[in-house]
Amino acid sequence: MQIIDLRLEGVNIGMELKLKIAVITGAGSGIGRAVAVALSQAGWSLGLAGRRAEALKDTADLCAGDILCIPTDVTYEASVAGLFDQTITRFGRVDMLFNNAGVSAPAVPLEDLDWAQARAVIDTNVTGTMLCAREAVRAMKSQTPQGGRIINNGSISAYAPRPHAAPYVMSKHAVTGLTKSIILDGRAFGITAAQIDIGNAVTDMSEAMASGVLQADGTIRSEPRMDVAHVASTVVHMAGLPPEANMPFVTIMATNMPLYGRG
Q: In angstroms, rounded to a whole number, what is the distance separating the alpha carbons of residues 95 and 20?
């Protein structure tokens, strides 16, 4: 696996334990990039994961501090294991995972859904999220001092579906189950989890919202969007909470988006 180290070649072991170390998946664009920049400015050292090495480098160039870029496919077990192995080798530990990588499928009726497109959603949003959480928990249990925090990127679709979005909606309901399970199972080890459910942040993935999307009443309407910086600052706050505090579920959305009344 190719590792791109954009900062220092070595870190003093005594210094490592004083650092805040985060792994961010889907860090090459959108929400992942915004969160990476904000966390770096808040003093976190980062392991950035994503499929495209050049996109990761572009994100790292916007960040402050000590950044490691690791091209990763979260749908492959060995690739995820390598992400955490390389992060721990570089920084000594993992204090936080922002489990952010995700994809969606075309908005079509369930009976018309192409299975390969649906499978890609499940592979990334469910399998990938689970694999990354598993490696984070493994690392957090074994390190000294023990513990850490996992923040999963859910969605408002985790509790209120959009029309013709069954694979994505199903995948985000699964993320909610994973979040709750980690909160329970990690308790004895100083590990906790949280979920941020995001509605209409301005990224490439939400471009369709501005031009018009299918609503529950069958009409096509544009929807308000919010600056992705609001998402990033919320994740920074969640990540920076002391070990004795957690925000298990947080929703942040464009104020006037038509969520309430949708389901």
A: 6
User: Domain map of the chain by residue range?
Assistant: 4-253
Q: What are phi and psi of 194, to 5 degrees?
A: -145, 165
pLDDT digits 0-9 by tens, 49-81: 999 999 999 999 999 999 999 999 999 999 999
Number of CB atoms found within 10 A of residue 212's CB: 12
pTM: 0.89
Residue of 76, 159, 168, 260 with catalytic role: 168
Cα three-residue angle 26-134-17, rounded to 5 degrees: 80
DSSP 8-class letter at 201: B
What backbone torsions phi and psi does residue 245 show, to the nearest 5 degrees?
Answer: -130, 150
Other Cβ atoms within 10 Å of 114 Cβ, number: 11
Give the per-residue pLDDT at 262. Answer: 62
CATH code for the part of the protein at 4-253: 3.40.50.720
Q: Give the end-to-end CA distance of the chain in Å, rounded to a whole number.
A: 44
Say whether 260 is catalytic: no
